[in-house]
Amino acid sequence: MPLLVMKFGGTSVADLDRIRNAAQKVKREVERGYDVIVIVSAMSGKTNELVGWVEQTSPLFDAREYDAVVSSGENVTAGLMALTLQEMEVPARSWQGWQVPINTTAQHSAARFESIPRANLDQKFAEGFKVAVVAGFQGLAPDGRITTLGRGGSDTTAVAFAAAFEAERCDIYTDVDGVYTTDPRITSKARKLERIAFEEMLELASLGAKVLQTRSVELAMRYNVRLRVLSSFEDTDETSGTLVCDEEEIMESKVVSGVAFSRDEAKITLVTVEDRPGISAAIFAPLAEGGVNVDMIVQNISEKDYEDHPGSVTDMTFSCPINQVERAKKAMEDARRAGTIQYEELIVDTDVAKVSVVGIGMRSHAGVAARMFRALADENINIKVISTSEIKISVLIDRKYMELAVQALHDAFELEKTA
Amino acid sequence: MPLLVMKFGGTSVADLDRIRNAAQKVKREVERGYDVIVIVSAMSGKTNELVGWVEQTSPLFDAREYDAVVSSGENVTAGLMALTLQEMEVPARSWQGWQVPINTTAQHSAARFESIPRANLDQKFAEGFKVAVVAGFQGLAPDGRITTLGRGGSDTTAVAFAAAFEAERCDIYTDVDGVYTTDPRITSKARKLERIAFEEMLELASLGAKVLQTRSVELAMRYNVRLRVLSSFEDTDETSGTLVCDEEEIMESKVVSGVAFSRDEAKITLVTVEDRPGISAAIFAPLAEGGVNVDMIVQNISEKDYEDHPGSVTDMTFSCPINQVERAKKAMEDARRAGTIQYEELIVDTDVAKVSVVGIGMRSHAGVAARMFRALADENINIKVISTSEIKISVLIDRKYMELAVQALHDAFELEKTA
């Protein structure tokens, strides 16, 4: 029997009506001949309520007990979804993490999958059950305590089940109808992609596209699980949404698939830093310890050699989320006081945004960067920092030009047209 | 290490402040040198919310899924209680039913205990944990599904743990401060009992006293678990509340310990029923099948022998809760149509109440019934039905005299005085 994994997020199961709506979609796949594993999140708001209680009770909470409390929202949805399916005469059974079992590491609140043995669910399918409803986001530690996977863990649960059960596809039902070339609120020319490669989706997810959690895309890529993102709130069929898949499944790919952006960036420059081996480690180790997520890094090539700085010196610039600027400043000032780094000045620019173009086609096409910089130059947008990967080019620009830059790049790479 | 079981009901853990208050009481017992097993209910209202969702989803719900959903409220409280104790520097760990494990039968929503192996909790106590917080009301079926014990099951969980772990005592914290000779709202002379025998408590519970669930008292009696009922909302010490215990622990017992009453009773009389072997079964079997909880039964001794009824005939009277009268009428009319019973008339009296006196002292004292009937006669209260057990006498009277009857009996047996 072919098998599908279908995942419904918190807004898709927010109340009994929405659970019924989701169950209808499951029933349709059963009627098409699939066995289905349904992964459910907690009803929206429930997990936040539980987290709030834990944090109020114990600010430095024991992660074991946090996991025991916070995982309970998914259990409720799993049972209600199984009941709803039964009412529609679809034989269904709910499964909590320990019942499957979903074996994970003991890293509470951030556990990773170890194994998902198939025996228990396979037996139920063999008995005639058509649907297994599994509580997402949770697992079982080696010592028998409940674990959770961290926020967004239900997407990852879905992909892990699709891999373990060799599912034909893993359908992620959410509140948007697919992955777009860029945010439709920025340009009406934004187009829904029919397909996107794992690597591209990974870049978009890490650039802030909230459609899929980064870890779930990584896992899908590793096990080659075909992921489909589609809307819970529309009538959907087998061609709906966006398929995230291996690039071999994408026949004709454009050079650039999408334009991503991140509004809340900050740029920090350390002026006149000693240029010596180990200086990068001396700067970035305290930032990491201080909880600063450094994104782009640029070291100026221009050397300075002033009278009062007889050695070789340089400027070091990096970017981070705007709400981490204070932490970054503190980490740098502490390191300067401790004598592990020296700098003349620390300049913070909190009026920047990041804009990126992403596409696997870049690998085989030269000139993407040139075309990108030309498009920005034509709009008189100054580029402050550049960083590139194999399939991505990101630039930091003044925030006030962000929308304009996205629109200009969307036009320049003709993303409104299909390949 | 001596061990205590402490159980907190829904109102005692209704919010984070109350959980903290309950945790203080646990901490005090730990400081006195006890290991403690804490049994918690769901925060009040939570279980009703979950039951509502299940019933809305599926009116004829699958009890397995009902149990999976409804048990989650206790899991939340158990985790929050463990966190609260940790904040107070009491080493504590939460336990869900499957983790202990609490092995039960597979009767979902009404499961019964099979066994509670001690190994897992004993190991944690040996590691230095002082408190095990166990989610009440739930267990694990032989096939690995979650069960629940039915309403009030947390009391029963507490007693079962006290029996399995040979606890010194099982303290049931609730919203009243003990067991009274009668409801203080009926007479201000009502007095809190220091001790009451299991058998008496059992009669009072089955007569509608809501302090303890009948099943928990049965279990306590069978395993001789000393139960103490006391208030969550007052400062309590080792002499607080009421101890429910073996009658041997009660030195000087009064003849009557308490007066119970039940307001919502109805009396049904079948007039001119054929008096033959098997007639009782023919009447009460369809009532039981129809879900009618028959309480008192009286068969008139007076025989009738009319012309049109050549055989021996009688009248049959029984009582049941007032909200089951329609069911009872339907069961009787169906049986008459089916020809399994005959009667001339069915008379319903919905203006009755039941008043009972309970006391183990009755066994060794004659004249309790006479004293009871005399007290009622002195107030001109007519007795409609009488039923007795070894330690209880119940009468059905007009509802308007109920309060008066309770007051008169409380006075007649001098319950305001200690033994």
UniProtKB/TrEMBL annotation, chains A, B:
Binding annotation for substrate: T47, E74
GO aspect biological process, one term: lysine biosynthetic process via diaminopimelate
Keywords linked to the UniProt accession: Amino-acid biosynthesis, ATP-binding, Kinase, Lysine biosynthesis, Nucleotide-binding, Transferase
Keyword Protein biosynthesis listed: no
Domain of life: Bacteria
Residue ranges that the Swiss-Prot or TrEMBL entry lists as coiled coil: none
Residues reported in the UniProt entry to bind ATP: K7, F8, G9, G10, T174, D175, Y180, R185, K210, V211
GO MF, any single term: ATP binding
The keyword Translocase belongs to this UniProt entry's keyword annotation: no
Signal peptide bounds: none
Pathway in which this enzyme or protein is active: Amino-acid biosynthesis; L-methionine biosynthesis via de novo pathway; L-homoserine from L-aspartate: step 1/3; Amino-acid biosynthesis; L-threonine biosynthesis; L-threonine from L-aspartate: step 1/5; Amino-acid biosynthesis; L-lysine biosynthesis via DAP pathway; (S)-tetrahydrodipicolinate from L-aspartate: step 1/4
GO cellular component, one term: cytosol
EC number(s) per entry: 2.7.2.4
All residue ranges annotated as the ACT domain in the record: 268-360
Reactions the enzyme catalyzes: L-aspartate + ATP = 4-phospho-L-aspartate + ADP
Family affiliation: Belongs to the aspartokinase family.
Protein name, per record: Aspartokinase
Taxonomic source organism: Paracoccus aurantiacus
